[in-house]
Amino acid sequence: MPDLVSIDEIRAAAVRLDGIALRTPLVPLRTSPDATFAPDSLAPGSLATGSLAAATRTAWPRLLVKAESLQPTGAFKVRGAYNAISALPAELRGRGVVAHSSGNHARAVAYAAALLGVPATVVVPTNAPRVKVAAARSLGAQIVTCEPSLAARVATVDELAARHGYAPIPPFDHRDVIAGQGTVGLEIAADCPDVDLVVCPVGGGGLVSGVAAAIAATCPGARVVGVEPELAADARDSLRHGHRVAWPATDAQRTIADALRADQVGELPMQHLLGQVHDIVMVTEEEILAAMRLLATDARLVAEPGGAVAVAACLFRARELPAASRCVAILSGGNVDPELLASVLGQEDRVGAGQAAGAVAP
Amino acid sequence: MPDLVSIDEIRAAAVRLDGIALRTPLVPLRTSPDATFAPDSLAPGSLATGSLAAATRTAWPRLLVKAESLQPTGAFKVRGAYNAISALPAELRGRGVVAHSSGNHARAVAYAAALLGVPATVVVPTNAPRVKVAAARSLGAQIVTCEPSLAARVATVDELAARHGYAPIPPFDHRDVIAGQGTVGLEIAADCPDVDLVVCPVGGGGLVSGVAAAIAATCPGARVVGVEPELAADARDSLRHGHRVAWPATDAQRTIADALRADQVGELPMQHLLGQVHDIVMVTEEEILAAMRLLATDARLVAEPGGAVAVAACLFRARELPAASRCVAILSGGNVDPELLASVLGQEDRVGAGQAAGAVAP
């Protein structure tokens, strides 16, 4: 059984990523369609006789959104990709890298490889969003397509690696990748030291693993909860059964959250799930779309469907989350086709206010 | 003639705003529809033999967007409003405050007043966007409507102040308001010390004045350029003539950039324009919409029309800007009606690539 990724590995990644990854802000979001725009932890007038220092402590609402959508490639993936490629021995790196991805990891590998002067080949499933594939191509990466299953992706990568000597950069099951994603957790702990709940999207499990490792070391009292679409809930099943469970791509691919369609979590992420993740909750497709709309209108942030699931859980599944007084939800990516975003904005919330009434931290 | 707002006043505002205003990030944006997603100041491979410290200096593209749209009220206005209200003597503050605004200042005053426990009344023109007025109302502010001219707004505020003893919080022509907005410039100078061009929207001139004062003191080699819609170019005319020129509301209100429809700049802002602002350039309505679209798709940021004019100038009017190697454009607000944003996203760029070819910093 592999050792968990350590806080030292995550701190080393943070040094490599200084100036490469954006230090993304924690953006406040009202937690219910019925809430006022006022900070929900602050009764009007409560600062009237207080000091400005008191205001500093209480002015934020309980839900803060870690906006990884603002990264140069539009998703957190640039952290792990850059960390893994820059950690390769120079000789290996010189031959080039290869990666498989539903889109955001491909774009991140292409970006990091361009920065480091490394040739990149990315393997994308035939159903990957065109906006993500086009971005990887425009960064100079060679694009190879394959069937939309994890097995097909891995086989294609293995073949390219064997034939050309490329170094594979896995999307999640790799400790340098997980260490890079863990810098998201380091930043949350530094910028919001009293956080007691971190809610995080789960696809292959790289992000939630790194974040959970960072939070366990820096905020031991805080809990980390993963979120999946109910149409791709393999990690929830895996955590419940205590071992990895695969959901066939034919089922899992039905969710609109293309970034979270991995058939199953990785082996190393499974160890982090078992040891460091408190729970995994599910959200519906409608809740995802409603969260995308609220993020755009109330936090002025563009989210892709997979990026919005943690916010959706805080808005609509608060009763399934542990009680918390300071919650951070990770918005993991914003690479959405403009037509989909337009369609989401053009319709009123389809999720009733009743469902949303129990917003985060009851 | 009033003294210009000093760097000391801006630094004092920064202390008051710590924990109230978000420290907004500088988000990289590709500068031309034809550009690749790669950092445009970085040739592929240029870091292959370089150090990570070198990467830190060169990994950003030339255009950085200061995302004030992420503030709790969706615009920079919370800085000036909170600074001005918290600077009032306690006795005066206790009677309540009154402000006029096309929307974002109203929302900011309502938000800051709620934090400080002060009753707020906001005067909004009949043509203010409903999303902004609704937000101010939901924060507990009393709403009074008036005709959409600066004269009508001021008269209404004066009457309410005289009748109820409310303290007026002007939207731009007030040194505490300007000092608060100036903290945007302080943050730009701190986070991007080699900036040599700051491009800033101009309505009544409060933001550009504060930013210019901060930049003049902290980055004396950098230039500050204001941007207006060509349908509301009173500040450009004022700078050209050396004194304030008014554009009647009936003309100026035609621009889609509702946040920039002030009939004329303030008296104190006029002094900052003359002394500290290098130039003012204009953008068309189509350029504003194209910039909104590019911000959403490429920087994952929601902009309102008035918030997007500085980015529009960097994208489409680069030849009219001074040469620069490190440019920051201020995205001043993101409170846009969802239907307008959906419409912008649903259509391809209407501004040709030819017009955009001369992107920032030729």
Features:
disordered C terminus, alpha/beta, 4-stranded parallel sheet, 10 strands, 6-stranded mixed sheet, 362 residues, homodimer
Walk me through the topology.
The structure is a homodimer.
Chain A: H1 7-17, E1 26-28, H2 52-58, E2 63-67, H3 77-87, H4 90-94, E3 97-100, H5 104-116, E4 120-125, H6 130-138, E5 142-146, H7 150-164, E6 167-168, H8 175-191, E7 197-201, H9 206-218, E8 223-229, H10 234-241, H11 249-252, H12 267-276, E9 279-283, H13 285-298, H14 309-316, E10 327-331, H15 338-345, H16 353-356
Parallel strand pairs in A: 2-10, 3-4, 3-6, 4-5, 7-8, 7-10, 8-9
Antiparallel strand pairs in A: 1-2
Helix pairs in contact in A: 1-8, 3-5, 3-8, 5-6, 8-9, 9-12, 13-14
The gist of it:
2 copies of one chain form a homodimer. Chain A is built from 16 helices and 10 strands.
* Radius of gyration of CA atoms of chain A, rounded to a whole number: 20 Å
Major sheet of chain A: 6 strands, mixed
| H/I helix tally of chain A | 16
Which parts of chain A are unreliable, with pLDDT below 50 for 5 consecutive residues or more? 33-60, 352-362
Helix and strand run of chain A: HEHEHHEHEHEHEHEHEHHHEHHEHH
**Category from helices, strands and their pairing of chain A:** alpha/beta
Order of strands in the sheet with the most strands of chain A?
1-2-10-7-8-9
Give the chain pair forming the largest contact, with residue counts. A-B, 64 and 63 residues
Count the E strands of chain A.
10
Give the integer mean of the pLDDT values of chain A: 87
Give the overall shape of chain A.
globular
Estimate the helix proportion of chain A, in percent.
Answer: 40-55%
Which band does the percent of strand residues of chain A land in? 5-15%
